[in-house]
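Page 42, continued from yesterday. The earlier attempt failed because a stray header line got pasted into the input along with the sequence. Redoing it now with the clean sequence only.
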Amino acid sequence: MSASHIRPALPADEAALGELDRDTWSPLHAVQPKPRPPYDPFFDSNHRPEHFLVAEDTDGSVIGYIRLIPPTPLACNQHVRQIQGLAVAGRARGRGIGRALLRAAFDEARRQGAVRMTLRVLGHNKPARALYESEGFVVEGVLPGEFYLDGQYVDDVMMGRSLTR
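This time it went through. Structure tokens are written below.
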């Protein structure tokens, strides 16, 4: 990744992350309607700063994030971390930011004691699926037609990978 830095999110990042989230909204990955004002807070009780890693450009601006959480609150599932959000600003695409965020998430998940990582991606999101596959994720399940988006049924693809290799 050229000329950027990945760090844990801070409460002060809320406005920048909210703006990035709205700017990167796309029917390619979103199952919720396009956000409209007044906007909900980016951070809330289920989306806390400690769940996010942030990619910062050399000027200090936020150009990406990844959300990493335990998939359930169950003790028997605490060895797994799940990616529930990845965004890169349009102006920063093609610089390896998404790949760097994934790799930083692997490191953070290992630091937290995880040995496995999972995610869900829409079946038609070929760019994201290619990135995940290139970083070791494999398809572990498909829920055919799980979502009805823009007049079409779209598959929900579950992917996972080991963090011990």
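Notes: The beta strands are 4-8, 52-57, 62-69, 80-88, 116-122, 138-149, 152-162.
Reminder to self: strip header lines before submitting.
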